[in-house]
Amino acid sequence: MVYSVFYYAFGAIGRAITELVLRIYEWREAKKKVFAERKKAAPAPPSWGFFRTANPYGNYDLTYVPRNTALTVTIPALIKLPVKSHEKARATEERLYFTVKEAASKEWFKEIEELAKMIEKGGK
Amino acid sequence: MLLEVILEDEVTCPRCPELEKILRRICRDLDIPFSVKFLGNKALANYEESVISRTLDPEWVKTFGSPEHKRSLEKIEPLLRYMKERSIHAVPNTIIRWHAGTNVKEIVIRGFNPNDKEQVKAFVANLYALLKSLKRVVYGR
After folding, report:
1. Same domain, yes or no, for B98 and B79?
2. CATH number where B14 lies
């Protein structure tokens, strides 16, 4: 069965138009998604006030971080405070562990730098 | 305090007094606050030289440890879990703590061996250099 040239031409044009419409639709949907994700981004944790901080004994303490000074006050969480404390800890305490053998080696400073970079990347 | 050095000590620890003398001298030279924290009778002497002794927390090793750490964890994990549950601490620990903005940063150095003179020399030199540079960073002088 032989179709005319117009048949094939209209078919091609129709396919091209539907593909274009679909692509435009997909692009708009993707754009909407990006904007929605941007709006959903969680607010940054507060930088001062009362915070729950873990202690080495498995419990938690309440630490007050002032707004403009570096002086902090830590109290054991044995009483109910009349003020609100933040559940989320502030920026995590950065703690690096070494043995004396490592600390006495020449490459100790390099190791500190590498570990500090690793912490910045979130342990990756 | 913006920059401080803390020695975690135990009364029966035979290697702690030597380390205390060294730390006191360095801190006096550099004018950095130094304090000794006595941990009580739950503390345990810390002489091990294995890489696993970087931390006493098995979870830390599982998430951040190198393949070498993870391999040695197989043997030592029950012991680490026992120590964590009973909140047993190892001594001596040298803690260098400083504040960067609102963040607290710490370097913990576990153990000390006064019999190895060369190691002690290198350790003191490294520690002096580190504290001097940290002082410059924290106080700006």
Report:
1. no
2. 3.40.30
Q: Are residues B36 and B54 in the same domain?
A: no
Asked if B64's CB is within 8 angstroms of A56's CB, the reply is no
Optimal mutation site among A101, A108, A121, interface B, most CBs of chain B within 10 A: A101
Give how far Cα B125 sits from Cα of A13, B33, B132, Å: 79, 19, 11
Alpha-carbon distance A53 to A22, whole Å?
A: 52
Write out the residue range of the structural domain in which residue B28 sits. 1-43+93-141
Find, in chain A, the residue whose alpha carbon is nearest to that of B86.
Answer: A57
A32-57 pLDDT tens trace: 888 887 777 777 777 788 887 777 67
More confident residue, A28 or B46: A28
Across the interface, whether the CB atoms of A93 and B99 are under 8 A apart is answered no
B99 shares its domain with B124: yes
A26 phi/psi in degrees, rounded to 5: -60, -45
State which residues of chain B have pLDDT below 50.
Answer: 47-54
Confidence at residue B31, expressed as pLDDT on a 0 to 100 scale? 92
